[in-house]
Amino acid sequence: MRIVLVGPPGAGKGTQAAYLAKNLGIPHISTGDLFRANISQGTPLGVEAQSYMKAGQLVPDSVTIGMAEDRMRQADAEGGFLLDGFPRNVAQAEALDAFLKADGIELDAVLDLEVPEDEVVKRIAGRRICRNDSSHVFHVSYNAPKTEGVCDACGGELYQRDDDNEETVRHRLAVYHTETEPIIDYYRAQNLVETISALGKVDEVTAKAMAALKK
């Protein structure tokens, strides 16, 4: 299967992508991983992307598209893939369509993870990270530490990342609504969109996603 996963920040796309890709036996291709791999390997696209990032500029669509196309050409993606974070706008969606059409293949589905905006803010703004180990993550409402501000695992100080504050989260949501959300209508016109609620436990959301894909 060839799937695009869409949803606002805080919808749990990364978590769901990992579970779905494993269940379906296809690679999970995330934009973040693409950038990290290309930059760490010093590929021409990675070098170009890093030059924009160091200058504080947005990386052009052409660079992101190039990275995604290179990854989709790899052997493990021949039988399908799950795209997470790409396409991010309609121009990238059109480029993806052109790339797939050139190979005589097409998308099977676009999964739209739906979460109310206030829930997104609550999920992200409530996160607390351990200063000693960033893999230790807590939440003031959903996974509170035994002692406020203290990591259960190592006793380190818990803090809120700068980009997890409510003002920043609402700005990220505004960018999502303006730039990314239009691809849902773009794909809906192709009868590819399956919208599911991303509320509930991780396994419950995964089950809903798998049921939608079986359609």
Automatic annotation (TrEMBL):
EC number: 2.7.4.3
GO cellular-component term (any): cytoplasm
Domain Adenylate kinase active site lid: 127-163
GO molecular function, one term: AMP kinase activity
Location of the protein in the cell: Cytoplasm
Chief subcellular location: cytoplasm
Entries under NCBIfam families matching the protein: adk (TIGR01351), PRK00279.1-2 (NF001380), PRK00279.1-3 (NF001381), PRK14527.1 (NF011100)
Subunit annotation: Monomer.
Similarity field: Belongs to the adenylate kinase family.
Domain notes: Consists of three domains, a large central CORE domain and two small peripheral domains, NMPbind and LID, which undergo movements during catalysis. The LID domain closes over the site of phosphoryl transfer upon ATP binding. Assembling and dissambling the active center during each catalytic cycle provides an effective means to prevent ATP hydrolysis.
Function: Catalyzes the reversible transfer of the terminal phosphate group between ATP and AMP. Plays an important role in cellular energy homeostasis and in adenine nucleotide metabolism.
Protein name stated in the entry: Adenylate kinase
Upper classification of the organism: Bacteria, Bacillati, Actinomycetota, Actinomycetes, Kitasatosporales
Gene behind this protein: adk
